[in-house]
Write a structure and sequence with these properties.
about 325 residues, Rossmann fold, Alpha-Beta Plaits, 2 domains, 10 helices, about 30% helix, about 25% strand, binds adenosine-5'-diphosphate
């Protein structure tokens, strides 16, 4: 059963909370060393419960967790040393100074001030917190607080970093900055697992993805092969002139959202040239267009059965 190869292995992990709520129904998952892994799922799917168990914050009801081959139930301290967890909520002491939060955290892992000096300096600089080091945490902006959480999760140089919604609430610039930082961290050898609601983030960063729904893993594959399963995409077309009615458009699935907006489902075996030829033949002029969703979002929507969009005209989407 013990798994020396994977950064993280979950075997038949179950969790039933005291109120009887079954949050995990026996999930099994393997994350390779060096991986950048996305754990996705709708609200209430069981993501935080899973992370909570790995971080020793939630007691599992059954199953086995190993981190780099160490069993969590047998060697929780050894597992903690290898693991950095960045929670969703800001949970440091707001009155503590930025630098002090990092030294205190390192102290929990048995590291001396001297041992910590270089890594704390490095993290403060790379995460743009160096000039805030003497400030109380409560004085930081939302983006800085989140970066401080990440610095705190990294201070003991974990081999596996787990981030729960790392860019929630961040503006575009901060999000892009954080993506670059995480990519660099992963390139330098740290295995990263993240949960995110921004599917664009998962598609951009992660090579492997698992989707959890109602306490079960419903998809677990390389990001590329998962996206290859997507056999149609929906495009939103903005028309130059209003259209009263459009009942069909060859084999394309269409939905007239309003007189100037058309949604068209383009299957893998169809192409945009044919679509535009059909539109041109009917005198419909398209001003501009966009993808309705990014590709992972479209797949996710279908797998967990939420949302509604134009369906293919000739066949159902099967993933
Ligand atoms: P996610 O992180 O994917 O949103 P969670 O792991 O937080 O999902 O929750 C999974 C399920 O377990 C949900 O139905 C949630 O309401 C329930 N749950 C989470 N924490 C507790 C708790 N402490 N007590 C009872 N039920 C809980």
């Amino acid at each position: 059963m013990i798994d020396p190869v994977h950064a993280l292995s979950l075997h038949q992990l179950t969790k039933t909370y005291a109120n009887g709520k079954v949050a995990l129904k026996g999930i099994s998952l393997h994350v390779e060393q060096g991986e950048f892994f996305a754990l996705l799922g709708p609200n209430g799917a069981g993501k935080s419960t899973t992370i909570g168990i790995v971080a020793s914050l939630v007691r599992p009801s059954g199953g086995l967790v190993t981190v780099f081959g160490e069993r969590l139930d047998q060697n929780p301290y050894g597992v903690k040393q290898m693991l950095g967890v960045v929670p969703q909520e800001i949970n440091f002491n707001p009155f503590e100074k930025v630098e002090h939060i990092l030294y205190t955290q390192g102290g929990y892992f048995g590291l001396s001030r001297l041992e910590l000096r270089d890594i704390v300096e490095h993290l403060l600089h790379i995460l743009g917190l160096a000039d805030k080091r003497q400030q109380q945490a409560k004085a930081l902006s939302g983006g800085m607080k989140r970066r401080l959480l990440i610095a705190r999760g990294l201070v003991h140089r974990p081999r596996l970093l787990i981030l729960d919604e790392p860019t929630a609430g961040l503006d575009v610039e901060l999000r892009l900055g954080l993506w670059g930082f995480l990519e660099e961290l992963n390139r330098s050898g740290t295995t990263i697992i993240l949960t995110t609601h921004y599917l664009e983030e998962a598609e951009r960063l992660c090579r492997q993805v698992a989707i959890i729904d109602h306490g079960e893993i419903i998809a677990n594959a390389a990001m590329r092969s998962l996206l290859d399963q997507l056999d149609s995409e929906v495009f939103v077309l903005y028309l130059c002139e209003p259209l009263a009615v459009l009942s069909s458009l060859g084999d394309f699935g269409v939905k007239l959202v309003d007189p100037r907006t058309l949604e068209v489902c383009v299957g893998r075996d169809q192409n945009l040239n044919d679509l535009f030829a059909l539109l041109a033949a009917r005198g419909i002029v398209v001003h501009s267009m966009r993808n309705k969703q990014n590709r992972l979002e479209a797949l996710f929507t279908r797998l967990v059965g939420i949302g509604e969009q134009a369906q293919p005209a000739t066949r159902q989407v099967a993933v």
